[in-house]
Structures are given as C-alpha cells and as structure tokens.
Amino acid sequence: MAGRNEDTLDHLTLLGNQDTKYKYEYAPEVLEAIDNMHSRDYFVKFNNPEFTSLCPQTGQPDFATIYLSFIPDKKLVESKSLKLYFFSFRNHGDFHEDVVNIIMNDLIDLLDPRYIEVWGKFTPRGGLSIDPYTNYGKPGTKYEEMASYRMMNHDMNPETITNR
C-alpha cells in the first residue's frame, strides 16, 4: 500500500496552513475528514488533557481531559481540525454531559464510524468531579452490541485518577 500524497490530501484546508484562524465559539464546521485506507478494525484514540469549556450558568471555566476512541469505517478525523474543534469549546457554555454528547454527535455526523466513545474527565469544582461517558455502535452490526456491552461494563473497575 502506498502512502498518502497531495492528491489524497488536497481537500484539507487546515493541515499545513500557516494562517490558522482560531474559533472562539463552538465551531463544528472546522472538522475535516480524510479517507481511511484500511478495511480492518482498529481503534484510533485521541486524548485532549487541555480541554476547556464554560459553565452555562456561571460562566466559570471547566477543565477536562477528553478521551476519544473510535473504530473508523470509511473516514478518519484530521487531527489539526480536531484540535481546533476542541479549542472552539473554550467560550462555549454547556454542562459536562452535554459536551461529551455534542462531541460524539458531531463526530458521528462527520465520520459515520463503526464505533465511537467519548469520555470527559472534568476537574472538580466545589469538591465534585463529573466524568460523563457516552458511546455509539453502528446499528444492526456487531459494533452496536459492542457499544451495549461497553456501556454496561463501563467504569466497573475505575482506574486511579491521576490527571487532576
């Protein structure tokens, strides 16, 4: 299999662009996809330990590590666009549970993955941390069953949290 070349990447507007414009409001339109060149199942994982959004009521900042894992089908998310997308939440006010579901829904719309999960580990405010988890498996496939299994067994043996 040959690697990627300019012809396979010519639709990307952000990668390699030295004049990057940062969005300061929620901007799902910055997300870009590239073709998945592999037909086998494999996980792609992104960890964003510097995620920020705002409390919709108080406007106070919320800090989190966002864990994103997915099994691609035909598309992959381009990583620079994902970074800019995450950055666009910086001034966006929403509850933690909404944030992880918005991220997942936007990526489902972009990628139509076989499987995807998003886990937000938010730092405590007022002595309470909130760590919402959501997932999705393509309906009618083994990935739907996988999503159900992972949801039912999620956090049954919580790890030691060391990123707070």
TrEMBL record:
4Fe-4S as UniProt keyword: no
GO MF terms, alphabetically ordered: preQ1 synthase activity
Active-site feature positions: C55, D62
Pfam families, per the entry: QueF (PF14489)
EC main group: oxidoreductase
Record's catalysed reaction(s): 7-aminomethyl-7-carbaguanine + 2 NADP(+) = 7-cyano-7-carbaguanine + 2 NADPH + 3 H(+)
Highest taxon of source: Bacteria
Involved pathway(s): tRNA modification; tRNA-queuosine biosynthesis
Subcellular location as annotated: Cytoplasm
Keyword annotations of the record: Cytoplasm, NADP, Oxidoreductase, Queuosine biosynthesis
Annotated binding of substrate, by residue: V77, E78, S79, H96, E97
EC number from the UniProt entry: 1.7.1.13
InterPro entries for the chain: GTP-CH-I_C/QueF, NADPH_dep_7-cyano-7-deazaG_red, QueF, QueF_type1
Record Gene3D superfamilies: 3.30.1130.10
Signal is among the record's keywords: no
NCBIfam families named in the record: QueF-II
Family: Belongs to the GTP cyclohydrolase I family. QueF type 1 subfamily.
HAMAP family reported in the protein's UniProt record: QueF_type1
Role played: Catalyzes the NADPH-dependent reduction of 7-cyano-7-deazaguanine (preQ0) to 7-aminomethyl-7-deazaguanine (preQ1).
Name of the protein in its database record: NADPH-dependent 7-cyano-7-deazaguanine reductase
Species annotation: Planomicrobium okeanokoites
